Predict the structure of Metal-dependent carboxypeptidase.
Amino acid sequence: MPDIAWQKLGDYLQETQVLGSIHSTLYWDQNTSMPINGAKWRGDQLSFLARSLHARQSSERFEELLHEAKDEFQRNYGLKPLVSKEFNEKKRNLELLTQELHRQKRLDPDLITQLATAQTNGYSLWQQARRENDFQCFAPALRYLISLRQEQAKQLDEPRSCWETLAQPFEPDLTIQRLNELFTPLRKRLPELISKYCLAKDINQQKWDLEEKSQQDLCERLLQEWGRNPQVTSIARSPHPFSITLGPQDFRLTTRVVRGQPLSCFLATAHEWGHSLYEQGLPSQSHQWFAWPLGQATSMAVHESQSLFWENRVARSRAFSYRFWKYFAEAGAPLTCGHDLWRAMNPLTPGLNRVEADELSYGLHILIRTELEIAFLEEGLEVNDIPSEWNKKYKELLGVVPSNDSEGCLQDVHWSEGSFGYFPSYLIGHLISAQLSEAMIEGLANDGVQGEDPIGECITNASESKLLSWLRREVHHYGRQLNAEQLVEKVTKKPLSSRAFLTYLENKLEQMTSTP
Amino acid sequence: MPDIAWQKLGDYLQETQVLGSIHSTLYWDQNTSMPINGAKWRGDQLSFLARSLHARQSSERFEELLHEAKDEFQRNYGLKPLVSKEFNEKKRNLELLTQELHRQKRLDPDLITQLATAQTNGYSLWQQARRENDFQCFAPALRYLISLRQEQAKQLDEPRSCWETLAQPFEPDLTIQRLNELFTPLRKRLPELISKYCLAKDINQQKWDLEEKSQQDLCERLLQEWGRNPQVTSIARSPHPFSITLGPQDFRLTTRVVRGQPLSCFLATAHEWGHSLYEQGLPSQSHQWFAWPLGQATSMAVHESQSLFWENRVARSRAFSYRFWKYFAEAGAPLTCGHDLWRAMNPLTPGLNRVEADELSYGLHILIRTELEIAFLEEGLEVNDIPSEWNKKYKELLGVVPSNDSEGCLQDVHWSEGSFGYFPSYLIGHLISAQLSEAMIEGLANDGVQGEDPIGECITNASESKLLSWLRREVHHYGRQLNAEQLVEKVTKKPLSSRAFLTYLENKLEQMTSTP
């Protein structure tokens, strides 16, 4: 059974991926090295690449190659009674490629160019607007991006609403109805928890900071203990931390140092490293599938579940603070015991900023953004009304009001790049992380890890490699074989819900506020 | 007189330049951020871009557009008696484009791909060979690169020798005969100067070093005083300092800190900044000609003349040391006066390393490489014999012998990337810098700068901006309107020779060794 057509299709995909990864490299450079005035030309480069990518992904040649590979697949497997792993993987690859081809073919190349330009432009105006606290300077660009995205959803012509259509690349198969099922319990319970555990207690957090160099050293120690291999991972600084994969052996992440927030860089490092570990665990390595859909991340919520696991379940855990506090103290932090660091890692104070939010209030930041996105994409919310709606929702859900738009609705980059439908992934990621952690606890116990809290046990003993092994074995290697909810159900034997997350939160809050 | 065809050709060139600058961005990233195991995939990316670039530069569409633009040019200007600046510029652009098209069309696309792969491979093997001091590990890759380049020269089929053909992209119109005319006086005179001024004197340079952070601060101060605008320039670290332009408003440079060589980073910064100033002064800005040949650097020797001017004529001058020594002393350097720094800036000790060489011995490093290149490309020198030939020539010309190949013939990156014909540009750059400086001295005097040494005067008064203005006005803005020798003759009213350089050297050496 020769697989000539399969190989040819693979070569084509490989070249598409080469082109796509060039686009990613330019994005990395833009955020880590490019001088600000390079933005216009960079926009031309990105727009050229977006056009070329779209042309490749919607070309007759691609359609032909895909068609031939399907025929060959039919010939080779059609009569076989046994359904093998290889069969399933190939079948899924072909399905995903067919879906992607149809999507790309429906899009007008002019729209691709317009979008690329509008994104570069939107990003640069958003930067200015945020700097100058002037929402009006960004509003026309946002309005234009919304109209282009609405047009895109129309062209894609899927049996979904506009917002749902745009959310597909991030969260395949997600519907607004399902989102409501998942989020409604949170919208009710999170504010109750906040008022019980935060507003009721007077937490006098001591103000302190750490030298930039010390923060860097702590981050380096963290990644070293978590098994970073510098031959395949690079680290740089950027205004917003992110993680990105530029080749099968080329993983990058960025952090930033925020003055007055000595743990920001450390937690961002943990978070971005979690993203990177997922990418590093995808089936690209063993199966040479960097170019095939199956080798890719299945959804941004699963991605977030991995980053949040390492940030919240590990770095923000009590066990971790008890192990690491002395390094912080050596670096100059005014800490006298592990508990001090644990409290500092979990401030439990609802604030205005999503990125710096704790686990408890984080979800509310997402609910607000999700509701607003759906409103301006589908329900006619005017762009000019976003700031006041934003502030109203913050007052209602978090009890705080931004004093200006820079710390309000201008704080996030996503909308400036026309990324609508992305935000819920962050919160679904919390739910997935919690539910996977429950399964991990069982799994580790079966693997022979002792104690009531096997995750904490591994952290205490500096054997986080056991946590990673479990994730590699149970979660990472599927790639896009399963979508997010299928993956969760496969691993945890239960449908995804908000239960595990709320249980985890309540336990942690109880522990946190009752220990001395 | 509409110039529709001209505009269309411009649009095409613009897109070619977008693609070319993407290639450069990947090169930048490779040297500043990429983890080492990213090399293979990066090679695939660069090879894909090289292929795409070659396809664009040799396409029928390009030929057609060029043809139409020429016709239009004939129609619009053919009957005009007056030869305007615009006429000259357009004519030159068309000539250069025609030449480039013919070159690209003669090259087999397969060769382009093979070369791109061989370059990536050669670079990575060279890194290993140098690390492990094992020339044999690099030798087969070098042999292969030589054969591919020889094949390239054959395909280009120019009325020049193999080495000359390969040197054209760096030094248009250069011949080996002309090279001999320029270099022969140096081959004779430089060793005489070395034995007179260096070997005869016992110069006991004090050993000292500076903290990395202090070196960084000194470099920052330097560039700030030399008018750096951070909105258009970025700085990073790389194993080998370089300067590169990634867009009309996007200039990058790298430096490195070498332990035990406290001035290395500082002088590299001055050098790379000189390159960048030339690029920043090219006519791309005012004429929107980033995409046209005329907006580009005319030759690597002219490029080097600019970097060497800022490194040697300015940063290594007495005036500069007298002004800057106190900052070095504040940073911890054991200096008690300007003269101390001046001596440290000009060690006058022939060594094994080209990059760290002083002005006096630098030329000899180049002579050796040039002779070897011509020998292995044209005269049958076997790759295996390069190390012994290298060492023999070092003994003869510099009186030193490398103790191993890593500090000998493996020290430079150029050959590992198949860049043959590049080295002479460095030395021609010294000659051009010296000859332009003589003209600058006259020019500054006419501009009203007082004193016997107007360049030193400007440096003493921290008005290097006057030097830059002169270079902008007299040198930079020509772009490729004139080739290197034409440019020198235009500015200095004399043909290029080694006289100015030797005169400058002898004066400086005399001054240096006679002052207390």
About this structure: The longest helix of chain B spans residues 4-32. The radius of gyration of chain B is 23 Å. Chain B has two domains: 4-159, 176-514.
